[in-house]
Amino acid sequence: MHAITGSGWIEVISGSMFSGKTEELLRRLRRAEIAGQEIAVFTPALDDRYGETTIGTHNGRSWEASVVGNEGERPWDILDDLNGEMVVAIDEANFFSDALVDACQALAEDDRRVIVSGTDQTYRGEPFDPLPDLMAVAEYVDKLQAICAVCGEPATRNQRLIEGEPAHADDPTILVGAEESYQARCRSCHVLRRD
Ligand SMILES: Nc1ncnc2c1ncn2[C@@H]1O[C@H](COP(=O)(O)OP(=O)(O)O)[C@@H](O)[C@H]1O
Ligand SMILES: Cc1cn([C@H]2C[C@H](O)[C@@H](COP(=O)(O)O)O2)c(=O)[nH]c1=O
Ligand SMILES: [Zn+2]
């Protein structure tokens, strides 16, 4: 909590896939651990890429986490699962419903430090709920960039590839995956099929 007011706050770490969001989240958690703070980490049930009860980076680092809900529908479970921890981290926020915003607000109003990580754009390049609303209510927002897999410029977009070809605009928004289905790309190199 803030030293003077005693109040909590929300930190959002966002940006494209592969931009280092989870690395940055783990860096902040390591520092909180060194400071002797109690930490609770949550990940949605939908993302089982790194094993059900861990959050992981694209380069192999991980941290134990509690799995929340079925298909990310139950962000209020986070409040029920807490045991006095004052640092609460939530990875893959893009898989949660809009209810995550109010749940994070409630945690911050309960004087906790809330660190939320998630990609802010769908593969179509549109805002990925609930990240835009979380970024609006957060005290601190960091938007990270990866390296464009095509041209090497900073990347802000998520290129979905299906069998190596750009995905169609009508495809479902949710597709759990990593290098096999997605690349980080810049605005110029991002492609969406509309035929
Ligand atoms: N195109 C890329 N740009 C930057 N880093 C990449 C790229 N592809 C793979 N990586 C690796 O991914 C790591 C970041 O992983 P991670 O923290 O899991 O990202 P995020 O959570 O944003 O998807 C980088 O340190 C790097 O090793
Ligand atoms: C763009 C986009 C992404 N996803 C999924 C793919 C991954 O499972 C996560 C993002 O993971 P990261 O830690 O940020 O690398 O989200 C999706 O379902 N739909 C999309 O449009
Ligand atoms: Zn590019």
Automatic annotation (TrEMBL):
Major enzyme class:
transferase
Entries under SUPFAM superfamilies matching the protein: Glucocorticoid receptor-like (DNA-binding domain) (SSF57716), P-loop containing nucleoside triphosphate hydrolases (SSF52540)
Binding positions for substrate per the UniProt entry: I174, L175, V176, G177, Y182
State a single Pfam family of this protein: TK
Location in the cell reads: Cytoplasm
- Annotated residues that bind ATP are located at G15, S16, M17, F18, S19, G20, K21, T22, D91, E92, A93, N94
Superkingdom, according to UniProt? Answer: Archaea
EC no. given is: 2.7.1.21
State where Zn(2+) binds.
Answer: C148, C151, C186, C189
Q: Name one GO biological process term.
A: DNA biosynthetic process
What the entry lists under InterPro entries is as follows: P-loop_NTPase, Thymidine_kinase, Thymidine_kinase_CS
> Mind telling me which GO cellular component terms the entry cites?
cytoplasm
Catalytic residues, chain numbering? E92
Q: What is its main location?
A: cytoplasm
> NCBIfam families per the record?
PRK04296.1-1
Q: What is this protein called?
A: Thymidine kinase
Organism expressing this protein natively: Halobaculum gomorrense
Query: From which lineage does this chain's organism come?
Result: Archaea, Methanobacteriati, Methanobacteriota, Stenosarchaea group, Halobacteria
Q: In the UniProt record, what gene is named as encoding this protein? A: tdk
